[in-house]
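In the current project phase, the collection of sequences with tokenised folds has grown. A representative record is quoted in full directly below:
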Amino acid sequence: MSVGALLIRNGRLWSDGAFLPGDAVLAVDGRIAAVGAGEVLARTDDAAGALVVDARGGLVHPGFADAHVHAAMAGIEMLGLDVSGAHGAEACLALVSAYAGAHDGPWIVGGGWHMSDYEGGTPTAAALDAVTGDVPAFLVNADHHGAWVNTAALRAAGIDAATPDPEDGRIERDATGAPTGTLHEGAMALVEPYLPPITAEAARAGLAAAASSLLGFGVTAWQEAIVGEYGGHRDASDAYGDLLGSGGLAARVSGALWVPRDVTLATVPAMVADLVRRRDANAARGFDTSTAKIMVDGVAENRTAAMHEPYLVDGCDCARDGADGRGIAYFGREVLAAVVVALAAEGFALHLHAIGDRAVTDALDAIEAIPAADRTRRRHHIAHVQVVDPADVPRFAALGVTVNAQALWARNEAQMTELTVPILGERRAAWQYPFGSFLRAGAALAMGSDWPVSTPDPWQAIHTAVTRREPGSDAPPLNPGEALTLAEALRAYTAGSHGLLGLDGSGVIEVGARADLCVASRDPFDGDPEEIWTTRTAVTVLGGEVVARG
């Protein structure tokens, strides 16, 4: 069905790393029909009847594509107990207390607390007990790699001093071995079976709310980074299928099917067959899940990211195979390679989470094991890439692996300076988020937010990619030699991410491309880089239609 014509004028046009001549873009029936004032004037009839958007001198650029986001989780959390806006332990507990006072369910479930607000990054059950009483409480942290639980929750799940740590996680304990209230990684799964299930209605409502928020930030396309049961959340396949089928979700979306961490060499064929079945079922409902998500390791701040050398912490017992202090690799190298090769043979793109330098090496080695014909069929990518051995940097380009960067994290803030750098040490801390080195080595670069781990606003991440520090901070920039230019960062969040997600007809402003566009509140190229974060998305256009106004 025709969506008519849209004319954006008085803007500074930018696409794929460069400015375009003229100040106007005309879209007709969902596609870009003319770029530049002269070309638009030549389409007199279309322009005369078009809806006009005045950019008021702001930047006009392709819509953002978020290459790594948890929209389904974010929507559920933003409609429930969301403590991500609280800064400090007291502010967080105040929000929990207010929610508990108005909530009469069997559990208190929410998330978003920040590890840097608590000594060692590990809040206690006793503190949570004071505001929740005997109602079990389960709160995932902001990075979703740990949970804060109260005494009632520990009791409900039967977790005590005799409970062993799972292979893919760790129970925080006191000197006697008793659990103190923080569950890292796979230890969260000890409680998850007891949580009240998320209803299908709540899942749809959460996803719809998240989609609206993303569109408001100018994100017109994204990849759901975990499609499957994780962290107490249900598989989002049905919610996506329902909304896509009803027309309630207009953005260009895809999903990455979750690869369970308990897979073994013997179970690889059955696991792959199950993902193929789910991929085909989702495709029949219009939801593309032809990507598989593999979490190779954890995160650095809780010492579960997989490192080549031990963390600088005495007595770390966080390794899977012996207490060697090098973090957790969720898959043995042989199993990881078998999973990756088998999935690639079935036509899946691989989306791998790798934080530690050992995880990055293992992920690259596994992709290198894919036969060349299968490796080049799809766009494989490694997300996060926090600590990268310099020897591995050129391997991304050599293997055709895209860097899926969450640039907002590349800065000196409390979690970095108080929890991460001290356990990495100076040498490895200097290897963090080497975005500039990746580009200089010829790697393809895409970007994503990892929302609800961090804000979905692309301009905040772009600001950090360029300045390597958070807005308004006078802290030293983190590894400033790895900074990107504004053009490089903006290209990664537009053309780079669109290309990674296979959306080759969008992510650029050119005649014939999809009219997925953003009008920014200002021109961030005109001014101090330290002001990039003040840029907002004023208008979002999807398929030639205005879908959000800031």
Summary: DSSP finds 18 helices and 24 strands in the chain.
